[in-house]
Amino acid sequence: xxxxxxxxxxxxxxxxxxxxxxxxxxxxxxxxxxxxxxxxxxxxxxxxxxxxxxxxxxxxxxxxxxxxxxxxxxxxxxxxxxxxxxxxxxxxxxxxxxxxxxxxxxxxxxxxxxxxxxxxxxxxxxxxxxxxxxxxxxxxxxxxxxxxxxxxxxxxxxxxxxxxxxxxxxxxxxxxxxxxxxxxxxxxxxxxxxxxxxxxxxxxxxxxxxxxxxxxxxxxxxxxxxxxxxxxxxxxxxxxxxxxxxxxxxxxxxxxxxxxxxxxxxxxxxxxxxxxxxxxxxxxxxxxxxxxxxxxxxxxxxxxxxxxxxxxxxxxxxxxxxxxxxxxxxxxxxxxxxxxxxxxxxx
Length: 347
Hints:
There is one protein chain. By secondary structure, the chain is α+β, with helices and mostly antiparallel strands. The chain has 6 helices and 14 strands. Strands 1, 6, 7, 8, 11 and 12 form a 6-stranded mixed β-sheet that branches. A 6-stranded antiparallel β-sheet has the order 2-3-4-5-10-9. The chain is rod-shaped and about 140 Å long.
């Protein structure tokens, strides 16, 4: 009975765990998701179209002008640079069309400086086909005919973004995009309004003057950040953004310089060790050669001394008209008569 209860409890636990796992959302596997459907009407302008949507006070605008697609993130419903959300760290991880990576995005990854894992704010892409300008809340992709044809046949366009530390997927319904493209391609140019005399006492709105917070000399890798000159808060933020980027670049340069110096010192040490080993080998070889030469000289002296003694001993036999076999080696020193009759009979 106890075993039966145990197995019933185990089955209930496994079933509950399965249901919980199925219905739970892991925030570390998925980020926030924003769906902008066809109910968000396209706003048609002069050869442009924009579809916008929002989530939790953040607005996303998909802009098309027959040349490029631009995604702008703003803090209000206005699709403008003034309303843009400005980021110090902005990553575009992927752009998908109906669940598959858009080829132009893959090209941009392959042609971004320094790395190819994701499109990073501040890094350049060859020919600027893609531009990640997180500092003004925008990401743009230039379109060619093939990419435009793909978009016209697509249903969902998904941007996988990481503004600072949070992940977000922004999904635009573009199932009606082909109609928008056709409409923009056939739209007549807007009528040019005739100039009207300005009513007296009405001031013309001044165009906001733009300023730039630029990096110091020697930091050309850091991009300048543009802001409205009259906006002190924007100036402060732009200056801080450039300062942060400069600090990071300074640390990167220090690290590169330190690594280069470490390699130089290691190479110097290796060269010095090689020279020292070479010198030791040369000294050892010279010592060995000197020892061999001294040994050869010593052997020569010994041989000469032995030869002299033997010749002196043999000379006594030769003077008696005798010859011995042990003197045969030195017979060339014997008198002529001995040389002519020399034998090794042992007599």
